[in-house]
Amino acid sequence: MRLLAFGDSSTRGEGLQDVFNPQTKTTRYPLNGFSSLSWPRHLAYKLDAKCVNLAQGGSSNREIATKITRTEFLETDTVCVLWTFPQRAYIHNHPLKDLKDPGLKLSPWKDRCKNWYRDWYVDEDRDLETVTYMELCRSHVLQTGARYAAFTYVDLISENSKLPKHTPLIRPDWSCLLDRALDGDHPGPKTQEQWARRFYARLKKSGKNRLPGGEVA
Amino acid sequence: MSRLVAFGCSHTYGEGHVDCLPSKTETEPPPPSQYAWPALLGKILDKEVVNLGCPGCSNRYIANSILNADIKQDDVVVILWTEFNRSTVFTPDSLRKLRLATSIHPTRNSKVARNYYKWIHDPYNSFLESLESMNLVNYHLQNYRYVYNFKANFNSKFRRNTPDIVYEYPKWNKVNLINQSLHYVDRAADNDHPGPESQKLIARDMLKYVDE
């Protein structure tokens, strides 16, 4: 059985102590490409599954969705997605694309993208795009027979937060993380463990198959 | 009586026909044309017609209309998907249906449209954006029996029969699009959109699939 995880740097485990060097402030992943303290690794252990972590730092939800739709799933797979900030955008095959990437990544934290955010950006439009990808990928995975669970940051963090339930997807309250990684930015090891528990609980609730340990979902 | 529920752009709405030309005094847009293919097809099939076509809209907009529409199990759903190169920016007011979303269209001479085609647009990106919307709708309607996906062939405006899709479909695409010529044997009153005879031919073509 495989656990396939999709998301951005927080799913890959960026900044965690096994991959981050605080002296040089650089991240170096092992050959498998992700931190052993990241939530997919904890979750795979709980599910007794092989962990395939396909997350990539800086991904937008469109890139995550593209990766999911291009992956071949087996009926025995468990697919977990942690959707990222809807502010990030992606344009496939754009003439101004980065050389390393087949498209153009747009992020509010990049100075060169500021015109796009000034002229084009509407919170609700980005939220709607994310919901579209969430629905598309959920249907795409479930039709293969695989088990599926997904969270947004707002979903995950709201447990520790006083934000109202229907806060737009766009504004997760990052100050509510249980702890931070060594880079001072990404979620820390306790938060990663907590997220793995929440994914596990959601998989149990979603009700397909018997979970390890004899629990019937 | 079951219904024919039609979705699409101006070709579905019937823009440019004499019965739905915009009025200078009315603020509300006129109802869809009786010369447009949904009315004609509904008449042949003896079904009540709900025409939800919207002039100038993108495939993303069409998908959003379908997801928000009240569709019943025995409805016949016919979608005439539009040109890939259009886009939409949804605003809070458009989502609350207080006003139309910002429509981005290659022939519209607005600042938003000009900047979009200058800085953002990429044809392959637009193709994928459309397919994403179509596939979401396909999953949403998978339990409905009578769903037909046509793709308006914009090459037919220039009397070319080759489909206007130049890219290979990605493997994940599950939607089987039927290439639908817009015929253009005549023009509507606005001298831009397909005229009454062309609309009859569109309805005739669709009937071959819908009647089965």
Descriptors:
heterodimer, A: 217 residues, alpha/beta, Rossmann fold, 4-stranded parallel beta sheet, 7 helices, 33% helix, globular, B: alpha/beta, 5-stranded parallel beta sheet, two-stranded antiparallel ribbon, 16% strand
Describe the structure.
The complex is a heterodimer of chains A (217) and B (212). Chain A is α/β, with parallel strands linked by helices. Helix content of chain A is 33%, strand content 15%. Chain A has helices at residues 9-12, 39-47, 61-69, 114-120, 123-142, 153-157, 189-206; strands at 2-6, 20-21, 26-27, 50-53, 78-83, 89-92, 103-106, 147-152. Chain B is an alpha/beta fold. Chain B is built from seven helices and seven strands. Chain B has helices spanning 10-13, 37-45, 59-68, 92-95, 111-120, 123-140, 196-210; strands at residues 3-8, 48-51, 76-81, 87-89, 102-104, 147-153, 178-181. In chain B, the strands form two sheets. Chain B has a five-stranded parallel beta sheet, sandwiched between helices. A two-stranded antiparallel ribbon of chain B has the order 4-5. The model of chain B has no long low-confidence stretch (mean pLDDT 91). The A-B interface holds A 65, 69-70, 91-95, 103, 115-116, 119-120, 122-125, 128, 132-133, 135-136, 139-140, 143 and B 63-64, 89-92, 95, 112, 115-116, 119-120, 122, 124-125, 128, 132-133, 135-136, 139-140, 142, 170-172.
